[in-house]
Design a protein that fits this description.
Layout lengths: L5 H24 L5 H13 L1 H11 L6 H17 L16 H11 L5 E9 L2 H13 L4 E6 L9 H12 L3 E7 L9 H10 L3 E5 L15 E2 L2 E5 L3 E5 L11 H6 L2 E3 L2 E5 L1 H18 L16 E8 L7 H12 L3 E5 L3 E2 L2 H12 L3 E7 L5 H8 L2 H7 L2 E5 L3 E3 L3 E4 L3 E5 L3 E2 H6 E9 L1 H16 L1 E4 L1 H5 L3 H13 L4
Parallel strand pairs: 2-3, 3-4, 5-19, 8-15, 11-13, 12-18, 13-14
Antiparallel strand pairs: 1-9, 1-10, 2-6, 6-7, 7-9, 10-19, 11-16, 14-20, 16-17, 17-19
Amino acid sequence: MTGLDAGETAGVALAAAHVLIGFMATVLVSANRRPSAAIAWVLAIIFIPFLGAIAFFFVGRDRLPAHRRKQQREMNARLLAHSSPAALPADPSADPPWLVSVTRLNDTLGALPMVGGNHVAILEGYAESFDEMIAAIDAAEERVHVEFYIAVLDSSTRPFFDALARAAARGVEVRVLSDHVSGFLYPFRAETQSFLRGAGIRWFAMLPLRPLRGQWQRPDLRNHRKIVVVDGAVAFTGSQNLIDETYLKKKNIARGLHWMELMVRVEGPAARELDAVFLTDWAAESGDSLPFLDLPSAGTGTIAVQTVPSGPSFDNDNNLKLFAALIHKADSRISITSPYFVPAESLELALLTAAARGVSIELFVSEIGDQKLVHHAQRSYYQALLAAGVRIYLYRAPAVLHSKHFTIDEDVAIIGSSNMDVRSFSLNAEVSLLLHSAEFVERMRRVEDRYRRESRELLLDEWSRRPWGEKTLDNLARLTSSLQ
């Protein structure tokens, strides 16, 4: 038997390396990871071994570095020490019997306590929400805190930025946070930062990618929150970014696309809790631990609110666990609005189980998608949902329904920045409000009624007969959702 020549030796070495990489991938990738995601990554590494391994190195970890997670735990302890006293509504008999267990779940995962006495206004119009925020900023006396995933100075947002400049000019402390990567994806980045500097406004990028300064993590771990807080007493949050409703994309403008949003204005103790979320992010990015404003914990409103931050700085998927728990608790009705609906397996199972229990479920999504891969992945879930009895409404083009909220039965609602997809559950920093109030849910019902009027219902027979080419794209796109 002759020895191997150089080419054969190299081939054997490569084969051995391939086997070793596959074995190591199976062991390392599967640790503390959902089986579906682990299998997807292992297959990627085995079939495209070197590119797959490189991809996993860059985007395979869905948590921030250890020092950022430690910082979050320390800030959680500080928040709880300075947070408003927990306060469910005055009439415990009016609560769903399961509400206390859900708020306790949130407490365990790192949320702030539920606080009563809040006023909450629903802001549907794009310009209306800007007008409300500008009015609040113009009334600021001590400080204004602004945090947006996307913050761009354009013709639509200029009045907002001008209000910030006016506040800074009269001595109000104005602080702004925006996501680092998103700043490179939209125009006027330099102009926006120049305006803030010229107005004397402190600005920091969230989750910056600056390897030479030691600032590095998985590139697609982003801060997706939308928060404005004035004097710790009035706050805004929801789905809307600080940018024109076309998102300034040429292809959007050519197609006539415009974004439909929903924000809420919160006045009362919950505004202080939203400010605490901002303070956490400010400390992480600036290094400054700012004091909490000393405000009365009691409010005059009737709505109880719990602020639930989530994201890769936490050790758990806080929002996913909350959403799944609420769906399991639902007794009669669930209404969901999500622009990007690519549910985790646990959430899909919760919805299918609720439908089988006789819960009436409706899902509002856009008729068209601005992100093709996500849109096709989303469509792959419609068949099972429709077959289970879930009613799906497609919000008519050219509007893109970007609102993010859902209601449970008659007195519980969720509103915030979180989509119902794997990205929002594991990769993005998000903030959600859990609201308890029959009167508030009744107002949300009117929003849902309007969505229904402006949508067309998708029926199972129609969906089953869609072309095979579309089905193939949908199913292939679905596979990518597990690569987290």
